[in-house]
Amino acid sequence: MGYSDIMGAAEDIADQFLRMTKHYLPHLARLCLISTFLEDGIRMWFQWNEQRDYIEATWNCGYFLAICFVLINLFGQLGGCILILSRNFVQYACFGLFGIIGLQTVAYSILWDLKFLMRNLALGGGLLLLLAESRSEGKSMFAGVPTISESSPKQYMQLGGRVLLILMFMTLLHFNANFFSIIQNMVGTGLIVLVAIGFKTKLAALTLVVWLFSLNLYFNAFWTIPAYKPMHDFLKYDFFQSMSVIGGLLLVVALGPGGVSMDEKKKEW
Question: Where are the bilayer-spanning segments (predicted)?
Answer without folding.
Answer: 63-85, 92-110, 159-176, 206-227, 239-260
